[in-house]
Amino acid sequence: MKNVVLLAYSFFPDKSVAALRPSYWSTQLIHSGFKVTVVTSSKLVEPQKIDNHPNYKRIEITSKKSSRNYLISDQGLQWGNAIKKEFLPLCKTVDLLIITGGPFLQMSLAKIFKKQFNSKVILDFRDPFSNNPRFNDSVIKLTTKRFLEWRFCLRADHVITVNQITAKLLACTPSKISIIDNGFDETIVNEILSYPKTKSDQTKIIHTGKFYENASPKNLIDAIESIDNVLFENYGNMFEEHNSSLKHCKFNDFVDYRSALRAVHDSDIGIVFTTGEAFLSTTKIFDYIGMKKKILIITNGFIRTGNIHEITKGNPNVEWCTNNQKEIKLAIKNLIAREYIDTKTQHLSRGYGFIKLLNIIQAL
């Protein structure tokens, strides 16, 4: 049996999307016969309350920022130092180390684990670290991050990322990279799909997750307020411009993944906002597809472009529009009038991606 250590800054029951991938992987690795130890900064529930739980070690950040953090804002540096101090002395055997990021600077621990335990190392980039188009980094900062990313990847036995566009942004030998996109958790999706949907005379529209400054939902809200017999609900951060005068919009705090999927199940249309960067690979698009929903993708860029288009290309239940009130209103009305057409979704599940992970591990 292989001893696997999974370094995941966010982990169940943390409600952030960053916790979903490592939480799913740890459970499935245990089902596959591995002994798994999870190292995380997230506050954990009692292990006896979780079926098939791994060993847990919570490591919190306690050290102050170093001079490097003033150049690169990444919590992985202090977290990595805490792991070296609090976790490494407890280790006896580590056959495989999986580090998922962001944050990213804890990936420097790959060198130590390889030297001390002769471990195999897999690095998982859920986002690009050095060359992230969403960040306006200076030349000095970009060069420094690029060098660190290159060094991390050089020491890794294998590198995983979420799509081909992100793979091209990494400072890594292409032959060392595999693609495992996020996907929907089929173990939860299939369970919730078996429940009856709450009946409603209104068309329910949903958005799960954060709103970002450069992808404002204001035009969506204005469009929905002008349409009869619709209800929009958001589960995530509050929209600062919303107020009590809104008749068709409701804002809720973040909820856990299962609760979010229950809300999606009771809805008719799922909303995705994209700022237009090609590499973006939002998890909610998979959840909407898995939950068999019609989908409206609102972009600040060009319609039907980037990785989100690659995921949804050919899906008859998807409508695109730019972030414009009139276009959004027309797209919603088109989706309301359209019947949902069942499509194949298995290849977009986390289970499908996990098979790829197992094949990578077995080949190391």
Q: If you had to describe this structure to a student in words, what would you say it looks like?
A:
Helix 7 (186-193) runs parallel beside helix 9 and helix 8 packs across helix 12. This protein has a seven-stranded parallel sheet with strand order 3-2-1-4-5-6-7, with helices on both faces. The protein has a six-stranded parallel sheet with strand order 10-9-8-11-12-13, sandwiched between helices. The model has no long low-confidence stretch (mean pLDDT 91). The chain contains 13 helices and 13 strands. The protein has 364 residues and is of the alpha/beta class. It has two domains: 3-182 and 350-363, Glycogen Phosphorylase B (Rossmann fold, 3-Layer(aba) Sandwich); 186-346, Rossmann fold (3-Layer(aba) Sandwich), CATH 3.40.50. The protein has helices spanning 20-31, 67-71, 76-86, 109-117, 139-155, 164-169, 186-193, 218-225, 257-265, 283-290, 306-312, 325-337, 350-363; strands spanning 3-8, 35-40, 55-58, 96-101, 120-125, 158-161, 177-179, 203-208, 230-235, 249-252, 269-274, 294-299, 318-322. The chain starts with a strand and ends with a helix.
Short descriptors:
single chain; Rossmann fold; alpha/beta
Radius of gyration (CA) equals 21 Å
> Which strands sit side by side, in order, in the main sheet?
3-2-1-4-5-6-7
Number of strands: 13
Strand residue percentage? 15-25%
Total domains, how many?
2
The end-to-end distance, rounded to whole angstroms, is 15 Å
CATH architecture annotation of the largest domain: 3-Layer(aba) Sandwich
